[in-house]
Amino acid sequence: MEEGEQVFNIRRQYEAFMDTFKTITLIIPHDQAGGEREFSVVRGDTTIPLEIEEEIQLEHAMKIVTSLPGELDLEKACEVVDANGIRTDLQVGAVIRTAAFDERYYYEGEDLGVRKVEGGFRFKLWAPTSSAVKLKLISKNGEEAEHDMTREDKGVWTLEIQEDVEGSFYSYLTCINLVWKEALDPYAVAVSFNSRWGVVATELGPPCTSLPPVASPVDAIIYELHVRDFSAGSEGGMKARGRYGAFSERGTKTPGGYSSGVDYLKELGITHVELLPVNDFGGVPDDPSDEEYNWGYNPLFFNVPEGSYSSDPGEPLVRIRELKEVVNNLHDEGIRVIMDVVYNHVFIREESSFEKIVPGYFFRHGENGLPSNGTGVGNDFASERLMARKFIKDSIRFWINEYGFDGFRFDLMGILDVTTMNEVSDLVRDSGLIVIGEGWDLNTPIPQEEKANLRNARSIPDVGQFNDWFRDTVKGSTFNLHDKGFILGHSGLEKQVAQVLSGSVGIQSRDQGIFDGPIQSVNYIESHDNHTLWDKMKACMHESEEQLFKRQSLGTAMVLLSQGIPFIHAGQEFYRTKGGHENSYNAPVRINQLDWTRREEHEKAIAYVRGLIDIRKAHGAFRFPEARLIREHVSVVSAEHQSVVIRYSEVGDYGPWSEMILAFNGGTEPASFALGEGERWRCLAKGDRADADGLFTIEGDQLEVAPLTVSVAVMQSISGKLDE
Hints:
This protein is an alpha+beta fold. The protein has 15 helices and 36 strands. The strands form seven sheets. The protein has an eight-stranded mixed beta sheet, with no helix packed on it.
């Protein structure tokens, strides 16, 4: 049976929709609306009269809202008959978006999809609005067969096949409102080339395991990386260019003999790599040319690895094995892996399995009945609905258990609801995994207080959020190319700079900040989105490159020396450029790939970042997990004249230094600050150098700070106790 083929030729003289379990809405064309208004529901041998509640004139029809004396369900087909005996089938309508529907059909089982059972395989699909469901199987030798499935409780359809179908292709055929549609399994864990078919795959190889978690999210140093960008450039010296396999290579070098690839990541000292989406996505074929590229925010199948990064995308198990090798190889080097997940939307709603299998349920609709578009890509995933929320949690659980991911970054998290994000936090709490997300305030039709966004940070206390206050204060607006922040010479921002350097929690009180704790603040000045900082500066700052280098290094230093979770865009440390492209999501790979020659040219800048990372790791006071510790130990010495001086007092219990002073100079003239007479200070960072063992002992009582740099001075702790 082909997709869209109808049970029979449907010719409805009027239409009837179940909008609640006790409400039926009739749409009657004006040429049919005359005569007696009397309607009943016919279910088998039973006839139930309908009571008319409201009549509404539409342009081409009459809308009549009716009520039932009791509730109907979806288990048996019904018809509506009018006073003239004219019948029409009762279609599933807005009932699917009611709380009663969720309550009646929520399925708690953890066995949706395909499972291997004794003697064969069991298929389970949640499709409560379907009147019939078939499983289509295509064997390895190309033989196709259809099997009727059986409806069970909660709208779950099931079938056991008593034969070995491992590796077979499969899909589902669902009949809804008398129309058949074909869809792949949303719970599929493997697909064929270009996602044409689901693949029965229960033997996925050994699972990965997560590394032991960091003690607190603030102990993480996150490095955002796109799989293809990482190795596509020939100068990186990796053989598996643009593929998963590049993460298995060791000893790779640039043409000048500098480290590249995973060796470079390890040397840099970051703790976590955040991979842009690696689940199956659209926008590129599985065998892309150099002109075909995508960041990956076009999700197709959420539990399947992307095929275009695989050495053999036509063999379903290869991409599974290769993605596991990515995780395992990074784990072998002590680097944890965060997965960028895109549960806020699908690539094309009308073509998605969710919409074909339970039309209208998994996506939000506005008051006009049309799909909402807070994401800007045509659909908003309705995470507040129980089976949508369950899917997200089931998917997260799958990626942890099977692939060993150490955390998750939620794209456009502001589309999702607070309850879902808290349940995700609960899911990962015992394993200590990191959860961060984009908490932007987006126009999606759920109550404001239910949105998982920055405004509601107090409602999702365990979730880190990308801190746009930090970003825009330090560098200037992301959305105004010519807007300038502190590091680009904007004076008057010093007090805000002091706050964002201190975790955005409010140094004196919560009212001064936006977060309850520093674990909620993801501090960054650059990501895959929008212009790189280098490209922004080239457009709005008419200065020498030498001056721009200083500005960017100062910005990166502010990220690494602030309270909260530091986040670095891959290549930021060597002034990454995309040639001025503001939105390179589908630009050719040559625009997006890391330029490893810049890694050669800017080794001194990279060494500086490595030194700053070592300094951050060396002392727990840079990584306070609670706001009370910041308020107890951190104070603002000065915040004026394009400079900010922060002091850490009595912090010897957290690391090798009892006192620390950080002086940030955003101006173009040298500055100096008093350290205090008779105190012996050691300088850890000055100009373009940084070293956790110290650069020199400061003579005198002044801390000198060169233009557009940060200086760090410390006093040795009496105990010398290092925070592990």
